[in-house]
Amino acid sequence: xxxxxxxxxxxxxxxxxxxxxxxxxxxxxxxxxxxxxxxxxxxxxxxxxxxxxxxxxxxxxxxxxxxxxxxxxxxxxxxxxxxxxxxxxxxxxxxxxxxxxxxxxxxxxxxxxxxxxxxxxxxxxxxxxxxxxxxxxxxxxxxxxxxxxxxxxxxxxxxxxxxxxxxxxxxxxxxxxxxxxxxxxxxxxxxxxxxxxxxxxxxxxxxxxxxxxxxxxxxxxxxxxxxxxxxxxxxxxxxxxxxxxxxxxxxxxxxxxxxxxxxxxxxxxxxxxxxxxxxxxxxxxxxxxxxxxxxxxxxxxxxxxxxxxxxxxxxxxxxxxxxxxxxxxxxxxxxxxxxxxxxxxxxxxxxxxxxxxxxxxxxxxxxxxxxxxxxxxxxxxxxxxxxxxxxxxxxxxxxxxxxxxxxxxxxxxxxxxxxxxxxxxxxxxxxxxxxxxxxxxxxxxxxxxxxxxxxxxxxxxxxxxxxxxxxxxxxxxxxxxxxxxxxxxxxxxxxxxxxxxxxxxxxxxxxxxxxxxxxx
Length: 520
Hints:
The chain has 520 residues and is an alpha/beta fold. The protein has 2 domains: 1-63, no CATH class; 129-400 and 427-510, Aldolase class I (TIM Barrel, Alpha-Beta Barrel), CATH 3.20.20.70. The protein is built from 20 helices and 12 strands. The strands form 3 sheets. The chain has an 8-stranded parallel sheet. Strands 1-12 form a two-stranded antiparallel ribbon. Strands 6-7 form a two-stranded antiparallel ribbon. Strand 4, helix 9 and strand 5 (230-236) form a beta-alpha-beta unit. Helix 15 crosses helix 18 (438-462). It is globular.
């Protein structure tokens, strides 16, 4: 035995490396059958898989330019990070964005900006920007609600997000006078740190489900009575990432605490059904809205990604006939969000926000219903210029999800569905969460919201208005880049250039001033 140990001790370090590589090569060629590349190219093939695994990070930090990444490019992320940290979020030497690109936004500024008086609220607080409409006022709900901020936290569930992330968001919205949408995962203790809350439920009815998994009005009433910071109820019909498909929470992310809050078993993926059991058509949805509003006294709204319009038209027609209906509608864009979704859904099902919202808004505008509804936009709108566009189109409030996540540390790793989020935002791993400090991150969420509102107000004033609700459709233009809309320059810019006197090129050549004045 001693002789064997002495023999091992005489082997140099590089020989150990060589032995390890030989063992890996033997394993690759003779024992594993899962990976053809590793079999055909032992040892070397592993580098291919390593590079493939870290490829997104390499492209994000070393390859992609400032404007080409999706879903959020480096400039957008940097603006959020700097705003959240109260750092310099300006850029110098002009824009590096292609301002002639398709869908680029232009905001028409006024010749004379709006001037605020010495005693104006925005003189006192440059970030004060409440919603111009009141939820539930038209329908005479017992507890109407005017959001104190036009930008708020969108529906993201505890379970999808970590406990510390949810706590950071809730504490942050309290500092920023915004609201916090719970997402469909139920109301958790981490939503209870003082921020206004909109309780959101989907087809799983988590937190308000009976023993058979169906909707329980009694549990909803009990939840609202025990939690007076719940300001409104939102019924999710669909979401941008996967309309027509239920939510997914992988088993790896389900802890005992999540199991208790949602009333779901451990060790199994939680798959919400695509359809509601509490209603099956538009009239039944309307009945449920009115029942919830009557029982709780709160404004009740619906959230959906937009596709076909027939049922929306049916909803609007019922609203005209009955004088009742949802107090607010949240329009989610097909751009997707934090939820796990098959690429076929995330890439192709439901309309992008601008198309979906415009189609929906026209349905209600044509029936003179828009004043009764608070329209909430949700879909990569957490930037002042995009907000101006949204308000010009008819939005009254904005919900942001991924932008809020980035303000508290998300690095766009795009592995929200794996429970391996490196920033601790979208994981249930205690170790990964440990680096996320709610005391610090809540301040950053609040500062991002305040910076957003301040810049949005400044853009509004530059356009000659006091509040963004005053934006009109013709205050914002976008590049349409459509050959059918091509126009000559005189019709595009509405003038003709002055005629330049010209005789011939020869006269130009013979001119004594060609190349500069030459004295005789």
